[in-house]
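User: For my dataset I need records formatted as: sequence, then structure tokens, nothing else. Please produce one.
Assistant:
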Amino acid sequence: MHSVNVGIIGYGTVGSGTVEVLIDNKETIKQKTGIEINITKIADLRIDKIQDKYLDQIPFKTKDAYEIINDDNIDIVVELIGGYEPAKTFIMDSLKNQKHVVTANKALLAVDGLDIFKLSDEKGVYLGFEGSVGGGIPIIRVIKEDLAANNIKEIYGIINGTANYILTKMEQDKKEFDEVLKEAQQLGYAEADPTFDVEGIDTAHKITILSTLAFNTIVPFDKVFVEGISKIKQVDIDFANKLGCKIKLLAIAKKHENDIEVRVHPTMIPNRYILSKVVDVFNAIYLISDKVDRTIHYGRGAGAKPTGSAVAGDIIDIARKLVSGCQKTVSTLGFTGKYTQYYPIKDINDIRSSFYLRFNALDKPGVLSKIAGILGKYGISISSAIQPGESSPGDVVPLVFMTHETLGRNVNNAVNEIDSLDVVKDKTVVIRVEGKK
């Protein structure tokens, strides 16, 4: 029986989930791999305050991460503390020590991962990061290896469970964003500070990683357009239903001949699309490739055990390679050449799509034609409209338009002019639309 020694830095949600998976299924892993995975050390600054039956089974516990990084008997270092520093330093020092590394640190890899990817390849050691995107959904290896013969053209992802849960409950319970967010926090689905989740930042970290792998290029995180769901109103969800659609926080990446688009924003999608069926805290990633066509990858996108399972999968994958004596043959990002950006990122204003527009305007003669006239001035044609039912003259009422495809720039210019009208009383709500009903 072969054995591989593992040291884990960080014993929070994902760290504890990883240990639970590796201990509970130790015999299963042995039967499948012929390898005994030994967790020999765990480091955490709170280690002496944690009461845990799994932690009790680990032979060595410490507050000092370098007790793991500098241990010659440890083959794989697992970084699960999150954040930028000291996580990056721990990973870099582990790689310099010829340690193989597994991490689930999406923010670090998306924002500042280039040095890590390069060093992993220079040292000829493995870097596993399956747990960084999609929790327990296998997707990193799918893109790097299983779809290596394909040109991936498009990615659509619901990859933040908190945001998807909130939008689901807003629709089901007919409640506004703030109320549902408080309930999600009470249930543990949302953090005390939910900014990364509800403002799309977490989703942007993940689509940065996925599009980098899929399009064979470094995607700079600061070039990704990001818009969250905190401004979505119940009225917009109701109108979406009337239009046969759902509103989802989508991560979208598309490869064109000379550039790519990578963006995160609330998106209206038709009910017949499979992503519209993804509810609550579940995630889904939809890929379109040139040879295999469409594939969808669905499951739990977060949590101790699902993400711990993904981390354990990376550990097992590396352990198999170590035991077989396999030299590293696949680059960390799955493509050859220098890690340099060579596809320009398309500006959000230069992307064509259909749009949902909701205006709050005075109910008086000529208002509808005035708004339609400004849209026409900027080359925006209307595919459908919803006008108010019963109302009294002078009331402020919602006017909803669905447009045909047009440039985002045209919509911005039109909306700015419309919002300056005396008869329009609030800022226009603009939601991009993907797919055809």
